[in-house]
Amino acid sequence: MSNDDDMTPTEREQWLRDHGVQIESSADRRKAESALSGTDRPLSVVEQVQRLSILDAAAGGENGVKFVYLPHDTSQKIQTVCLPSRLVEALGPAGDIIPTYVKSFFADGRSIDEKIFKDQAAKQNLLGGDMEKFAANAKEEKLATVSKGEPAAAAVKEEEKKTTLSSSSLMNATAGGSTETFSLVRPSKTNKNEGVYIYLDEVGMLKHLPLNTRASQLAQQCGYHPAPNFYGDVFVGRVSSKPMLHNIDIESGDIMDTTKEWIVRAPHENVLWQQAINEATGRSGETQPNHAGTEGVAAEATGNDGCSYTWLQNEEEVELTVPLIDDGDETVNKRLIKVNFLPQKVVVKYNNECKVEVELYSKIDVDGCTWTLDKKNLVITCEKARDGEIWPRLELSG
Q1: pLDDT band at 314 (very low <50, low <70, confident <90, very high)
Q2: Where is the signal peptide (predicted)?
Q3: Of the four, 26, 124, 288, 302, which is 20 to 30 A from 218 by CA?
Q4: Quick one: DSSP state of residue 96?
């Protein structure tokens, strides 16, 4: 092989094969991936973990850490996946390593909706000034150190740290994937120092990811009322805080079977935790803020002619109330009303004048849409295409 430098990559690869060197070519990898996924598409993060587990087992490696993949699409199965032991060793083994691993799954290249960001920033007093960490659960995780023996005052002091945020800096910060950790139940003496967490895309709502109703139901079973909204695919993992924080196994059956002890005990565990935090901080328990148009409180919007209208929503429907004429003696002529329902759009015209033309945040069932007249207001009821979906706002984009 004296003329190695003159060889093409293909010739060099063939020379190595002829001399007994085993080489996995890119074609071999694609073939193996296609065999695992059943298609020619790239492997998903779950399939990648499964493939690594198979290779690790074939190499004589021991089983690593099992956790659960919970897709938002209810037609897809909830799956148990396993981080190979070599990855556990590389990423840990101390500490919760799942957020570090799954964050690449959330680097999907989706852009952040500027208007939703501004709306959420205004609600949380984030925009144009100081803010607490964007993920609300990050505050909880700082306080969670109380359960690990650190003084409550130190945990509270850490929680008070502030930073600044803009939509552009948030987009840059999350471009490589950003994982938010939500506590279903935290480690404590009463649960053998074992906690269970949901790992999700920190900016999933801002990316218009679909609602994950199964994740919300799981949180509700653990005592969260109202149930938090989770967007996109999520993962569920378990940790033990003794003798030091580290991951332990959890499987799909552990979250699908509501009779499992950890689920049954979780509501009581969370009440005790909140009481401990209230005592440490001197504050009352905080609840998840209501979403726009919920709890019977109408949200305002602006129509095409500049007039204001309002809207309400629940898990099944969204309702728009549109004034058709100004106050006065004039009455509404039903024959002049035209309402056009499309899968993700509603257009309202009166006397050939467009009052509302709104591209909706999510899809509606056109056959389940109706309208009625309430004096001078048009009341439109649209059935949501996906039950259980709470929209962060009415419109798809600003």
Answers
A1: confident
A2: none
A3: 124
A4: -
